[in-house]
């Protein structure tokens, strides 16, 4: 696939028509575009700028593990990079010896070797070596951390005061601050009460999880103590026949807004194509299938946390999940989160036999 033909493909689409798609070539080209965009970005950054790139854990199926790479531009064109190590990963998601060896072979120093690297792998280079750095970062995310496509990456460019820096996009990776361009706090609030409460919370130096609970409780017109929180610490929000969860992660700071749209669904090529098409039309977030479950996910960065970002993510997700579980269930079957009595699916003509052999369609 040439760069010209790749440029004609809509952003975010991972699958094309079955008769013409070469998925491996498309994915390879997407990573080349990401590396090229990253190499072009680094020389434009001033001293004190940071680039944080995170593999969206809800979209990649990595559970509680958050794989990330962060670069920092220093004085005199020096660039330092950190890549998450096993010390920041939960048991069951830590890298084996071969993966650690791969990181070292790519040029990363083991944790603690680079000053102030802590539990992370470190690397020091220069702005002039941006192409080589882009290759290392891309291969780390793809080959070691297992990112299937740059569209599964979320990135943030900011200064040393955590203020966002406007830059050109990193190919199909998701730029979190662009949410500000979609909706503002004033757009979300009609009577001023909600915006005042959240503004007060934003001004306080409080832990991320407390700020998130304050936002969700205020949106739900309830108290923090009355929020529905499960044993994993996820906040549950009922959305018609769907359920939306809000999860706070610490390292790196990240808030996941996600929903299991359908369970016990058969992963087919038609389903993947449909999810790809829908994701391409979404202003933020993505849809994906992991094993036999269709998920919707919108990540929100915890660094420089903005209440408007989380508010928009929750609003989009609650509306999206409640609409899509019915639509996709009607087309692909499977089970929605809540039972038929909550929101029955419309009767479908000429499908009686198919429905008869699938009793108990809902959880």
Please give a quick description of this structure.
This protein is of the alpha+beta class and 363 residues long.
Structure notes:
- The chain has 363 residues and is α+β, with helices and mostly antiparallel strands.
- Helix content is 35%, strand content 19%.
- It is built from twelve helices and twelve strands.
- The protein has helices spanning 3-7, 23-41, 57-60, 97-106, 130-144, 179-182, 185-188, 193-203, 208-219, 269-281, 307-332, 352-356, and strands at residues 50-55, 68-73, 78-83, 121-126, 153-158, 174-175, 228-229, 235-239, 242-249, 254-262, 286-290, 293-301.
- The protein has a six-stranded mixed sheet. A six-stranded antiparallel sheet has the order 7-8-9-10-12-11.
- A hairpin with a 2-residue loop joins β8 and β9.
- α9 (208-219) crosses α11.
- The longest helix has 26 residues, at 307-332.
- The chain is globular and about 55 Å long.
- It starts with a helix and ends in a 7-residue tail after the last helix.
- Residues 1-23, 177-197 and 341-363 have low confidence and may be disordered.
By secondary-structure content and strand pairing, the structural class works out as alpha+beta
Globally, the shape reads: globular
**E-strand count:** 12
Radius of gyration over all CA atoms, rounded: 21 Å
Please estimate the helix content: 25-40%
Number of helices: 12
Question: N- to C-terminal separation?
Answer: 44 Å
The stretches of 5 or more residues where confidence is low (pLDDT under 50) are 1-23, 177-197, 341-363
Let me know the average pLDDT: 77
Beta-strand share of residues? 15-25%
Q: Biggest sheet: strands side by side, in what order? A: 4-3-2-1-5-6
Largest sheet: 6 strands, mixed
The H-and-E topology, N to C, reads as HHEHEEHEHEEHHHHEEEEHEEHH
């Amino acid at each position: 696939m040439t760069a010209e033909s790749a440029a004609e493909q809509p952003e975010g689409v991972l699958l094309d028509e079955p008769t013409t798609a070469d998925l491996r070539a498309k994915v390879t080209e997407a990573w080349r575009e990401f590396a090229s965009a990253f190499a072009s970005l680094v020389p434009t950054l001033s001293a004190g700028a940071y680039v944080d790139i995170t593999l969206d854990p809800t979209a990649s199926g990595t559970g509680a593990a958050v794989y990330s790479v962060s670069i920092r531009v220093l004085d005199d064109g020096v660039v330092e990079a950190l890549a998450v190590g096993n010390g920041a990963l939960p048991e069951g998601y830590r890298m084996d010896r071969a993966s650690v060896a791969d990181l070292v072979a790519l040029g990363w120093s083991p944790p603690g070797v680079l000053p102030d690297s802590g539990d992370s792998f470190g690397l020091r280079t220069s702005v002039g070596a941006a192409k080589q750095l882009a290759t290392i970062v891309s291969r780390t995310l793809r080959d070691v951390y297992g990112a299937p496509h740059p569209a599964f990456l979320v990135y943030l460019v900011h200064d040393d005061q955590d203020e966002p820096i406007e830059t050109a996009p990193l190919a199909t990776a998701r730029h979190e601050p662009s949410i500000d361009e979609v909706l503002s706090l004033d757009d979300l609030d009609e009577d001023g009460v909600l915006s005042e409460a959240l503004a007060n919370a934003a001004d306080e130096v409080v832990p991320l999880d407390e700020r998130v609970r304050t936002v969700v409780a205020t949106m739900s017109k309830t108290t923090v103590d009355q929020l529905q929180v499960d044993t994993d610490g996820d906040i549950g929000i009922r959305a018609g026949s769907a359920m939306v969860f809000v999860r706070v992660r610490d390292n790196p700071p990240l808030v996941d807004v996600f929903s299991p749209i359908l369970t016990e669904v058969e992963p087919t090529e038609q389903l993947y194509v449909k999810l790809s098409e829908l994701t391409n039309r979404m202003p933020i977030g993505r849809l994906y299938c992991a094993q036999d479950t269709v998920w919707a996910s919108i990540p929100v960065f915890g660094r420089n946390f903005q209440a408007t970002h989380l508010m928009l993510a929750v609003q989009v997700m609650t509306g999206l999940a409640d609409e899509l579980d019915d639509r996709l269930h009607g087309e692909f079957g499977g089970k929605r989160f809540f039972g038929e009595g909550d929101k029955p699916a419309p009767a479908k003509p000429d499908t009686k036999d198919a429905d008869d052999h699938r009793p108990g369609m809902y959880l």
